[in-house]
Amino acid sequence: MARVRTSGTDAELRLRKRLWREGMRYVLGRKLPGSPDILFVRARVAVFVDGCFWHGCPVHYTAPRSNIDFWKRKAGENRARDDRVDRELAQLGWRVIRVWECEVEEDVDAAATRIATAVRSSALTRAET
Ligand SMILES: [Zn+2]
Predict the structure, then answer these.
(1) Angle at which helices 8-21 and 108-128 pack, to 10 degrees?
(2) CA distance 99 to 103
(3) How many A from CA of 73 to the centre of ligand 1?
(4) Which residues surround ligand 1, an ion (CB under 5 A)?
(5) Minimum mean pLDDT among 27-31, 58-62, 99-103: which range?
(6) What was the pLDDT predicted at 1?
(7) pLDDT by residue (tens digit) across 65-76?
């Protein structure tokens, strides 16, 4: 599991700093389903920074060598829970964006831009309705 280096929290912090520097003002959304990592309240955009290992990122998920069935099931359960959380949030009117921790590590600007674009377009849509 040498690839599992950084915790989701490191990637999350880096992304938050980048967004803040861009002038994007967010809050931390611990009270919503799934406890989103970053919330843009006015645009109603909820962001999760998903750990590659725990959430089974297609690029970096490498199955551990022991207890393979257990870990496979665990990643499957996590993904099922992510889907459920996404649906719950959508029902509450939130748009959900999931960013892999590796996306943040490889290109924090691209991740921040993806979020900024969604926030701006959501804010726009909401202003029109
Ligand atoms: Zn990854």
Answers:
(1) 60
(2) 7
(3) 18
(4) 52, 57, 59-60, 100, 102
(5) 58-62
(6) 38
(7) 788 888 888 888
> How many Å lie between the centroid of ligand 1 and the Cα of residue 4?
9
- Residue whose pair of structure tokens reads 């939130």 in the numeric block: 94
Tokens 């990122």: give the residue. Answer: 57
What is the distance in A from the centroid of ligand 1 to the CA of 39?
A: 22
pLDDT in tens, 86-122: 999 999 999 999 999 999 999 999 999 999 999 999 8
- b/e string for 47-60 if b means 16 or more Cβ within 10 A? bbbbbbbbbbbeee
Cβ-in-10-Å burial (0-12, 13-18, 19+) of 112 comes to buried
